[in-house]
């Protein structure tokens, strides 16, 4: 390698961390904006309303949220717990649990940010580091729950920002999880949505396959009210719409009872 090539390579290497961390500057953590003890109940469906099902999202602690996907009258459910990294405004660790009536919770898989900060590791592929090309990153398959919570900490919620979308690929020939690319979130105005005064955003970019999506957050409270995208996040859907149904407060003990009730066929 020539001396010139060496210095070019060195400069590029030095530039990478600042590029990867650029959009973290759009956020500033404020502990008072983490709504610990709040339960958000959503309905997920195709955009035409078909394949409708409930999602219950609970903020268990300042760095932990839990998402319960269940079906009325069912005796099983899926719980995804996310530990949050407020330095990167991303998920630090995912835990996927299976819940069943009369059985202990079963830990099915974990996903964790590598200590180097350059990627993530999966419990079923611990020797493989999956690179993440920028921070923060969020998951569509997690119903953008961590994105909704992170957006409460935007320095300027009326400005655009970017994040990386990283998700399960559902590709038998490729890696099971990957950085899908960058998504730009563009503020487009204020709107009444489902009884809430909201900020409306447009989602664009390679991270959502160059489609256009929409997302709404409450002006008061900052919580995620709704989003929709014209492609599915998992098999069985044709596209996705997630809408807020209710907001309430709940103790940790109440949340445990809520989960038990749902796998007893509760509504």
- Sequence of secondary-structure elements: HEEEEEEEEEHEEEEEEH
What is the SS-derived class?
A: mainly beta
Mean of the pLDDT scores? 90
Low-confidence stretches: 1-19
Question: Approximately what portion of the residues adopt beta-strand conformation?
Answer: over 45%
Describe the structure.
The chain is mostly beta strands. It has one domain (3-262). Helix content is 13%, strand content 46%. It contains 3 helices and 15 strands. Strands 8-7-6-5-4-3-2-1-15-14-13-12-11-10-9 form a 15-stranded mixed beta sheet. A hairpin with a 4-residue loop joins β4 and β5 (90-100). The longest helix has 18 residues, at 3-20. It is globular and about 45 Å long. The termini are far apart. Residues 1-19 have low confidence and may be disordered.
Question: What are the salient characteristics of this protein?
Answer:
267 residues, mainly beta, 15-stranded mixed beta sheet, 3 helices, 15 strands, 46% strand, disordered N terminus
In short:
The chain is built from three helices and 15 strands. The protein has 267 residues and is mainly beta.
Helix-strand layout with pairing:
Blueprint: H1 3-20, E1 38-45, E2 53-61, E3 64-70, E4 76-85, E5 90-100, E6 106-113, E7 119-122, E8 125-131, E9 137-138, H2 145-150, E10 161-168, E11 177-193, E12 196-204, E13 212-218, E14 224-229, E15 240-249, H3 252-262
């Amino acid at each position: 390698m020539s001396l010139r090539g060496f210095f070019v390579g060195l400069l590029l290497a030095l530039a990478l961390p600042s590029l990867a961390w650029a959009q973290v500057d759009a956020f500033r953590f404020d502990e008072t904006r983490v709504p610990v003890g709040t339960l958000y109940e959503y309905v997920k469906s195709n955009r035409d309303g078909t394949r409708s099902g409930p999602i219950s999202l609970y903020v268990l602690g300042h760095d932990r949220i839990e998402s319960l996907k269940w079906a009325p009258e069912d005796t099983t459910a899926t719980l995804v717990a996310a530990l949050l990294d407020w330095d990167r405004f991303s998920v630090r660790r995912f835990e996927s649990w299976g819940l069943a009536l009369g059985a202990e919770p079963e830990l099915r898989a974990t996903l964790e940010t590598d200590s180097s900060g350059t990627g993530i590791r999966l419990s079923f592929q611990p020797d493989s580091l999956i690179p993440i090309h920028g921070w923060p990153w969020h998951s569509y398959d997690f119903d953008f729950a961590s994105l909704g919570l992170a957006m409460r900490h935007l320095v300027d919620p009326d400005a655009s920002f970017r994040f990386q979308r990283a998700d399960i690929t559902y590709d038998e020939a490729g890696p099971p999880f990957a950085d899908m690319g960058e998504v730009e979130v563009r503020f487009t105005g204020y709107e009444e949505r489902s009884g809430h005064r909201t900020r409306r955003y447009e989602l664009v970019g390679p991270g959502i396959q160059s489609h256009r999506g929409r997302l709404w957050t409450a002006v008061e409270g900052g919580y995620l009210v709704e989003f929709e995208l014209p492609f599915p996040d998992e098999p069985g859907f044709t596209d996705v719409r997630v809408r807020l149904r209710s907001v309430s407060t709940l103790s940790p003990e109440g949340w445990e009872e809520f989960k038990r009730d749902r796998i007893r066929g509760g509504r």
